TrEMBL record:
EC number(s) recorded for this UniProt protein: 6.1.1.22
Organism for this UniProt entry: Balneicella halophila
Keyword field: Aminoacyl-tRNA synthetase, ATP-binding, Coiled coil, Cytoplasm, Ligase, Nucleotide-binding, Protein biosynthesis
PROSITE patterns (UniProt xref): AA_TRNA_LIGASE_II
Gene from which the chain derives: asnS
Name listed for the protein in its UniProt record: Asparagine--tRNA ligase
GO molecular function, one term: ATP binding
Amino acid sequence: MRGITIKEILAKSKVDEEVTLRGWVRTRRGNKHLSFIALNDGSTFQNLQVVADHPKFEEDLLKQITSGASLEVEGKIVASSGTQNIELQADKITVLGTCDPDEYPIQPKKHSLEFLRENAHLRFRTATFGAVFRIRHAVSYAIHNYFNKNGFYYFHSPIITASDAEGAGEMFRVTTLDAENPPRTEDGKIDYSEDFFGKETNLTVSGQLEGELAATALGKIYTFGPTFRAENSNTTRHLAEFWMIEPEMAFYDLQDDMELAEDFTKSIINYVLDNCMEDLEFLSKRLQEEEKVMKQEDQSMELIEKLRFVVENDFEKISYTEAFNILRNSKPNKKKRFQYPIDEWGVDLQSEHERYLVEKKFQKPVIIYDYPKDIKAFYMRQNDDGKTVAAMDVLFPQIGEVIGGSQREERLDKLEQRMDEMNIPKEEMSWYLDTRRFGTVVHSGFGLGFERMVLFVTGMGNIRDVIPFPRTPKNARF
Ligand code: 4AD
Ligand code: MG
């Protein structure tokens, strides 16, 4: 069955070679005597032009060659005056699956991304989503490659857990109990001892806590898996199910953590620049056309130029306090102030503040570190000032936060004290505290939002367009 792919043909086929190619029709044009069929098989952004001389084929067969139909073409590679220099002269065409043009939603024209989101099950057939999902694959490969080369072990943290790693309470419950009529304890609470797991469980919000157990034994590890947040955020940057990469390293302090974050993200971008140029060029052109249509005032840097700029320049590193002072003294816009006031030290930075810093003030990625402890998670290492923790966020232009991380609190007494202050049950987390009881060490880590990184490298505007089947509030159709 297996034939040759378009990628293989373009790489190594010679004129006169006989091939069998299978794929889906993108477009068909021609005249009474000839048809030019643009065939795509997903192996590359490029379509291969198939030329069918009408007298060689039955009229009924030719009628079935419409956009979306699947074909097997046997023929000969011939020279062409087109951009590819070669095309496929068909000797035999078999229609593997017909496609009714009146019903097929993906027409040979430009569809809006909103329309394609409604037809997410078929959008992989378009040039745009082909490019996006090939790049998504490349980013994922680049990540594994980077860690493997640098001595990190891929560690599988559980999807179902009994803990809330971020302490934010944004969890999807996992239970086998009858939702209408769950068993109750004497004081009226749901009795989870009757549950499948004998315990209240949820889908993981982060693999970090388990990752810390692994790092304090294996040295350097990373997780890469789906994570879940039941937050009701309807933005272009949030998903209820997203993929996260969480490296965790023993004997790394915050400085090391920040250096790793910068080197790691740059290596991903470099990989994409080195391996996905065709797809990037297409997406970049698409983006420029869109910006022209929307008549955007500040034309952002062209996509590929922007990616090169990020890898060639150092990230800006500033403390929360420095960021706070910059923001307090700046006017984002002549008429408008920030929607959220920034006049009291200790407030959390909103995305408008983060975007001001990366897009207006520094115009490059910014790492903010040493955040106020009251807006950060319990596990972060407390600084000597008593007010801040050794946390860091990496902010990217157009995206905002791509990474959140920290040096972890390795001192048992300080950690327990913080858990008490934040009402985090120590008994249930005794397994976690054991890392601090038995041979505790300085360690650090961070989490990269995979889809946010894919958004950045593809230049797409909405996170729903870089994950195959987006899960957002009220949306799980497929
Ligand atoms: O900042 P967050 O919540 O950090 C953690 O979960 C830590 N446990 C990470 C660690 O130190 N190991 O999430 C990390 C990153 C964010 O910077 C963001 O890029 C992404 O995950 N993220 C989301 N991406 C899409 N949709 C959401 N709802 C996201 N929430 C976080
Ligand atoms: Mg965060």
